[in-house]
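Table 4 source record.
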Amino acid sequence: NFRNLNDKIITTILATQPDQLHIGTYGKGLYLCKRGEDTASRMVLPKSKGSRFISFLEYNTNNKELWIGTFGGLIRLSAVKATLYTNNPLNPESLVDNKTQTATFDRFGSLWIGTINGLSRFDQRLKLFNLYREFKWQDTLLNNNVYCIYEDPKQNLWLGTISSGILKFDPQTETLTAWPLIKTLGVETRSIRAIMCDHNGQM
């Protein structure tokens, strides 16, 4: 029970070590909670408009880096420094949009970032982003507000969108397959907030 988090809206929690938690909040930044302490310490991060709104946390166990998604860009936090990545309209190799919503590491170590305006892949070696802004299927432009990402065993990325259902993205061919309207058990929806797979391979 961390007393100084009682009035905060918590958006995401990640255990980066057995004895510590990183807790993201809506509008109040990122906090570090350590076992045995009764207060959480607010972390000092690079500032930009919207960066106090934390959307996701991803931890790279290989290089011990924490990736922090915000509404003001993407923050890469290592033991020695924090780097803020933002969209630059004049640079096609920058983050596709500052309002990030979700991310996942694929099996090759690339970080895929879902935003309100498309998908980005961060190239760890070249330190640049690949952009996927236009989602098109059967000559129809689809909603590109990506809310969740799941990588299947065949390296396809399944994207949950706010109003275009589920999209399957093949990174090798950069092609999309869409299921814009999901119907199951009497429920119809075009908004997908989470995608998971069970032990039988069913999503």
